[in-house]
Write a structure and sequence with these properties.
Layout: H1 2-19, H2 25-46, H3 51-55, H4 65-88, H5 103-111, H6 133-153, E1 162-165, E2 168-171, H7 172-194
Antiparallel strand pairs: 1-2
Helix pairs in contact: 2-6, 2-7, 4-6, 4-7, 5-7
């Protein structure tokens, strides 16, 4: 009995370390760089564009550069809310077995624009309240900087907060990777608009 009591603190420490695992430095560094790179790509893509270029559509049912930026900015708010929601719930590591995608598979799948998807009604440009590209960019920058700060400073157990999403079950860290991947996906779309032969010249 005495030996068991001596062993108990060690057992409890092992149990705690298994149940709670803050992000590693490698994970934080990767997510931070990914967030910063995809943020910069948006600003680089719209730099110097005039109003006609921002609003150009290759066809009536296609998105403009401004539409893409508005969608990116509004999605940033919605996806961040999902991260916060997942982290407010109790850790549920038992759900990790339901995650079917690695981080790499998630990023590749979201960024691949051959996989077509329809934006939810609330995230379609005509339903987004931003009045201009600049207003959307300001919102995007504010949201992204908050997210980068959160990733750098948080000690949340993101891997053990698991949530069911429309595209599959993901942990909170993967939701952050989803945000960057989604930004990249629509930056590609934005650059496709600019590559259209009828895109206005300066």
């Amino acid at each position: 009995m005495k030996r068991m009591l001596l062993f108990l603190p060690t057992l409890l420490m092992l149990s705690f370390s298994t149940a709670y695992e803050p992000l590693s430095k490698k994970e934080k560094d990767f997510a931070t760089k990914f967030l910063k790179d995809t943020e910069q790509a948006v600003f680089d893509a719209v730099k110097g564009l005039n109003e006609a270029q921002l609003k150009f559509k290759a066809a009536p049912d296609k998105w403009s550069v401004e539409d893409c930026v508005k969608h990116i900015a509004m999605s940033e708010k919605g996806l961040w809310t999902m991260v916060e929601g997942a982290l407010k719930l109790p850790p549920n590591p038992e759900k990790r077995s339901e995650i079917k995608m690695t981080d790499e598979q998630l990023i590749k799948g979201v960024e691949d624009r051959t996989n077509k998807a329809q934006a939810p009604e609330a995230l379609k440009p005509e339903n987004i309240p931003f009045k201009s590209t600049q207003e959307a960019l300001d919102s995007f920058l504010e949201s992204r900087e908050k997210l980068i700060k959160f990733v750098n400073e948080s000690n949340e157990d993101m891997r053990n907060h698991v949530a069911a999403m429309p595209m599959g079950t993901l942990d909170a860290y993967q939701l952050i990777l989803l945000i960057s991947s989604h930004t990249n996906r629509h930056t590609q779309q934005l650059n496709e608009v600019k590559a259209d032969p009828n895109f206005p010249k300066k």
